[in-house]
Amino acid sequence: MNLTAPIATNMPSRVEERRFLGLPTWIKAGRELTGGQFSLIEQIIPAGFESPWHMHHSEDESFYVIEGQMSVIMEGGRTLLQAGDFAFGPRGIPHGFRIEGEGPARILLMTTGSDFADFIAETSVPSDTPPAAPDMAFLVAAAERHNLAILGPLPK
Fold first, then answer.
1. Do residues 69 and 106 lie in contact, with contact meaning Cβ atoms separated by under 8 Å?
2. Which CATH superfamily is domain 17-152 in?
């Protein structure tokens, strides 16, 4: 590894806020910055929010909690994450998450590719767009285009 190689300077200092499933979302790194090798998504999510039960076919997903708490649910288990905690979700394993506690959580979602970031870019809207119910048929079709499968609601 060359530790003296120059650091990429094409990284933006500010990233546009989007709304993904109505949530404040920032694609911090995606295909353009990483050559499709990595993505970093930041979200602020209210207590009680549950992601769909889903699976990534082409990339692993990791979760890091900056503020608040969340449960990461995978087949056979549930892990409660607090601020500063990390969880890893391998590709091909159905999973989802729920924001726990009384307040919102600020989280980072990281994937070992950019399919998830591409999916969010395609299905999110500018932050000033009025809220609307998600179009599930559109989300499912977009997920399939980006090597994701939306499997249904989060198991209880």
1. no
2. Jelly Rolls (2.60.120.10)
Amino acid at 138: F
**Do the beta carbons of residue 109 and residue 43 sit within 8 Å?**
yes
Q: pLDDT tens for residues 66-78? A: 999 999 999 889 9
Scanning the structure block, which residue is given the tokens 């989802």?
Answer: 96
Q: How far apart are CA 9 and CA 22, in angstroms?
A: 32
pTM over 0.85: yes
Burial class (CB in 10 A: 0-12, 13-18, 19+), 135: exposed
Q: What is the DSSP letter of 137?
A: H
Q: For the beta carbon of residue 106, count every other beta carbon within 10 angstroms.
A: 16
Q: Count CB neighbours of 22 within 10 A.
A: 16
Domain boundaries, the chain: 17-152
